[in-house]
Amino acid sequence: MGYRPSISRLKILLQIVLVSIISFYGWQWLTFVDKYQHRQVANYPNVNRTIPILSTVKRHIRDTPRPVESFPFPIPLGGVGPDKPLYAGTNQYPFFCMSVDSQLGQPLVDNNAGLGVPIYQQAFAGNESHKIGYSKDCLIETTLHYYYQEKDGSFTRFNFDAPPEYEDVAKIDLGSELTPYIIRVETGSINRYLYMIAMPVSWPKSPERDSSQLWNKRLIYQFKGGSGIGFRQGKLRIRGLIEKRSAQLAQGYALVTSTANRTSYTYNMLLAEDTVARVKSQFVSLYGDPIYTVGVGGSGGGLAQYLIAQNRPGLIDAALPLYSYSDMVSQTIYGLDCELIEHYFSVTSLNRSKWSDWNLRRSILGVNTKQGHIHRYAWLQPINQLAAGVWPEYPQGNSECQNGWFGLTSLIHNPRQSYLRSYFSKAVRQQVHWSYWEDMVGFFGRDKSGHANTTWDNRGVQYGLNALINREISPDEFLDLNRQIGGWKPQNEMAPEKLYTVFGPQKKPLWMSLWSRHNITAPDPNTGVAPRTKASLKAIKSAYRSGQIFIGNINIPVLDIRHYLEPELNMHHVSASFEARQRIINWKGNRDNQVIWVAHPDFDPQKEAFKAMDNWMMNLLSSPERTAANSRPTAIQDRCIDANGDTIAQGPTVWDGKWNARKQGKCHQTYPMFSTSRIQAGGPWQGSVFICHRIPIKQAIASGIYGDIDMTKHLHTLGKIFPDGVCDYTKGDKGRPLDLMPRIKN
């Protein structure tokens, strides 16, 4: 079907052509201007990343003993923490130091060979004539800082030379009398990342480290989220962390964290675990064992708790994951589908007008969509359509894929697209493969081209299968979708994004390769079918064994909390909590140690959650024979919460729905959940099939995969699209080691 141009459309077309010409010729020279020349890494050690402990993993890393700590904790004040992990492998380079960004001063000089960031005499930062060396490992001295809360609730650095007036400091109740709200903060480096220990203390007369009389013996380990691909130390936001946990610090909790435990900087969960163990060693060597350690953190900071609790029991005793996913590797499965599908809707579909119905798009994408909700980068679509040779149309809707996962492919999957370019010199940028897979290369290994292996595969995936079965799309539309959608080019064939901007790389660039379309496989001229992508079985098996995938083996108390953000098309969708739940059920046979709360965005249940978790932990610790499941107070149940903090419904069935094939419960009705592209393709809700087992087309038809839709007349076309068969999800994940198969099938 074609489009008949109108006068108004021709005007739009001329405007787009004009903008495109100006953009290409007028802006191209300003693409990616280096703004931080004085901060860039000039060189870096050529190190082959290895993780020796993986050679001893026979089943799962949970069952592999960790080595005895070799570093002599505690790190003394003025001293320096370990520069290499205990068991998480060799250091990654390049590695950009961020202690200056964290207002903790320059790192220590560790070489004069030009490796890492330049270090200057303190008073001459950036002055080449006053350079005193380089730092490749970003170590800093261990230091104490103090903050006090003012009466307006803000926190201010405590100055011993000019201390605040006693009456100007806010007071907290930690005993028989009110106490000035003062926080002592220790900072330093462990495993090259920046760590922090904070706890409330009495009024300090001088910097001193030992006081802990206001500590309530409970420890919070703060995790944080974000999408990161490694190669940098991370920024430690001290005041922000104190403010975030102010309510708990005011109750006497101690707080610890590290930039290694923020997924903006790495998703390497073995390194994250190694760092948690060492930060806790520093804390315990100074103040003794806490009665329990509770993890808290959102998004990537939530999945880190699931994985660390699974992989090394005892590091955290309870988990408060917020907006969590099960793990990062699993999210790439449908996350990397997003731009393939959106590209099909907007460019290659034979009937693009059909996809102007954004509710219909949801039947393919799975995630939520909204008609009339316009994405802030919507203006890029007609420009890119024109460049692709199709008639431009301004989108009249939005989806979670666009709103939440926009640009994920180029960030984590494209080795030639570095969003960290402002930190590194051009010479370094050209040598490194900038991707999530490269950050994980110690686990996944390399292919013959020298690129990191990947776990992403879409062979045999029948996109839109559920929409076909439900008669939302026709067989011809189903076939067109699967013929055209394609996959991602091999890592060594991918090219950088075509981005142009006059305002810096963060200011609405003109993206001339929207959907990363130049890295999508094109239809074969002979078959008319776009090739799919093949994953590495070796990488997937290693991801399972090394604990990068959540398999559900978790036994601590878990209170999984999130706001209901689906109307905002936020990527932190409700179904992710039930993805984790399904894996727990499949592994253990029950989910009694996991409780899920979903709240209206106007109410924050965290304060109540800490109190509930404390009750749960006190029950658990009171009787050694108890488990996390049978020590859970009856008041702590699945629930949904309204804007005023009132419970809408609670109990074991309130979240029943499609995910467990039951009648919808009250909470599910109040806060509907959506799915993903792979669930819409017939996959399981647990969302962890990396490579599906495939069966021949005739067998698929005979088994009823297509419901009551007669696909026998399309055998030839299906055979061309799926020459090796289609996914049979009843057989689980082909890449999962047999000894780690779930005990209960979904």
TrEMBL record:
Pfam families: DUF6351 (PF19878). Residues 85-735 form the DUF6351 domain. The chain crosses the membrane at residues 12-30. InterPro entries: AB_hydrolase_fold, DUF6351. Keywords: Membrane, Transmembrane, Transmembrane helix. The keyword Transmembrane helix applies. This is DUF6351 domain-containing protein. It comes from Corallincola luteus.
